[in-house]
């Protein structure tokens, strides 16, 4: 095997252990990432050197060929160290999982896979826009693609592009300027002329995802560089298998945040010994019970993530379970970080104890589409349809 292939290959049984070791290193930089919002490029160089950027890439293409159960565990481990890194990695894995399923045109897949063998060639979708929001809510993009000779000329602005400063490629959703418009998804190298970035990300948490705006001004992309296309008068098509992967990996990020909150809380409660108490805070029954609540929520999340991941890997039908997973795991993660703040007392609000950062990071999860109320509505309508 070549050196390039080795860079993207790691044995599956070792992948989680490798991720846990890297997470310890990333954790040392997590507070700085939160404070500055600087994209942690060095983390992705470390992930590349460790072979984790190719975790879900097929073995035939130099990757580990790992399934969803392993991938979610790796994402949770990284998130426990530095969650912005984990979210960008989850997006990268989601796209590469689609490539492994054969949903991409072979020539585009080969280009992306080769780049991923050579270095940290991160990629993500660029679909949301300032006016439209997420395409999950309906509506057509304002970003346009006009045919000119052998190229598409693309103009528009995309919002909330997770990991933008570190991406090599973006898959850009655009509306064609044709008699019968199409929705197309173009593979756009982000070093193309006419591509620029505007720093706009200023959310409560997950600061180092640098989910900024991507601006495209007369960007020329070859006509054949289409990842997907469909009539514009149809709702945006979603790959069901891709949704299973995405929702599981997204949820795994925030489970990792909750695990880190629990660990930081435990360090505080077991080490802090008020003079008036004469023993660690962890000896107080009320705090022990609160920790028990946290353990139940974390055990629920971990079991759901493993179970859905394994079912997908083994080809069992999962129906809407990944949507339920996304709802339950994220709600539980927010609850865990809220409990950690409550049980941590005054020190829980101090930045050097990190609990407030974990809570802000977990709250940010609620912005991901489809939001919890949309999931409940979909499930409720489906239940009514079955009953009538």
TrEMBL record:
Highest taxon listed in the record's lineage: Bacteria
Single annotated GO MF: oxidoreductase activity, acting on the CH-CH group of donors
Domain Acyl-CoA oxidase/dehydrogenase middle: from-to ranges: 127-219
Domain Acyl-CoA dehydrogenase/oxidase N-terminal intervals: 23-97
Region (Disordered): 124-148
UniProt entry tagged with the keyword Calcium: no
Database matches in Gene3D superfamilies: Acyl-CoA dehydrogenase/oxidase, N-terminal domain, Butyryl-CoA Dehydrogenase, subunit A, domain 2, Butyryl-CoA Dehydrogenase, subunit A, domain 3
Domain (Acyl-CoA dehydrogenase C-terminal) ranges: 250-369
Keyword annotations: Flavoprotein, Oxidoreductase
Keyword Flavoprotein on entry: yes
Record protein name field: Acyl-CoA dehydrogenase
């Amino acid at each position: 095997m070549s050196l390039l292939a080795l860079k993207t290959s790691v044995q599956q049984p070792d992948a989680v252990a490798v991720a846990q070791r890297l997470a310890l290193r990333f954790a040392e930089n997590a507070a700085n990432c939160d404070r500055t919002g600087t994209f942690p490029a060095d983390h992705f160089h470390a992930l590349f050197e460790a072979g984790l950027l190719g975790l879900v890439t097929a073995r035939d293409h130099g990757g580990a060929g790992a399934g969803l159960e392993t991938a979610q565990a790796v994402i949770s481990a990284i998130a426990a160290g530095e969650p912005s890194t984990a979210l960008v990695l989850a997006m990268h894995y989601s796209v590469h999982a689609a490539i492994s399923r054969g949903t991409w045109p072979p020539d585009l897949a080969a280009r992306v896979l080769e780049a991923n063998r050579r270095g940290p060639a991160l990629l993500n979708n660029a679909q949301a826009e300032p006016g439209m929001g997420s395409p999950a809510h309906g509506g057509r993009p304002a970003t346009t693609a006009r045919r000119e000779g052998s190229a598409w000329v693309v103009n528009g602005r995309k919002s909330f592009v997770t990991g933008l400063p570190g991406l090599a490629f973006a898959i850009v959703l655009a509306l064609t300027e044709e008699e019968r418009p199409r929705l197309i998804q173009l593979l756009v190298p982000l070093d193309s002329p006419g591509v620029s970035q505007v720093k706009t990300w200023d959310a409560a948490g997950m600061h180092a995802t640098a989910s900024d705006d991507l601006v495209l001004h007369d960007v020329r992309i070859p006509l054949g560089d289409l990842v997907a296309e469909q009539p514009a008068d149809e709702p945006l098509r979603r790959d069901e298998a891709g949704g299973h992967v995405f929702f599981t990996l997204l949820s795994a990020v925030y489970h990792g945040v909750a695990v880190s909150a629990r660990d930081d809380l435990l360090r505080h409660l077991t080490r802090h010994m008020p003079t008036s108490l004469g023993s660690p805070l962890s000896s107080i029954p009320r705090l022990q019970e609160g920790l028990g609540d946290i353990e139940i929520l974390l055990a629920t999340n971990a079991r759901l993530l493993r179970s859905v991941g394994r079912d997908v890997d083994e080809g069992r039908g999962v129906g809407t379970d990944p949507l339920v997973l996304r709802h339950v795991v994220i709600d539980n993660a927010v609850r865990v970080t809220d409990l950690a703040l409550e049980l941590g007392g005054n020190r829980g609000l101090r930045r050097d104890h990190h609990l407030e950062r974990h809570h802000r990071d977990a709250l940010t999860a609620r912005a991901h589409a489809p939001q919890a109320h949309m999931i409940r509505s979909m499930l409720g309508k489906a239940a009514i349809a079955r009953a009538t």
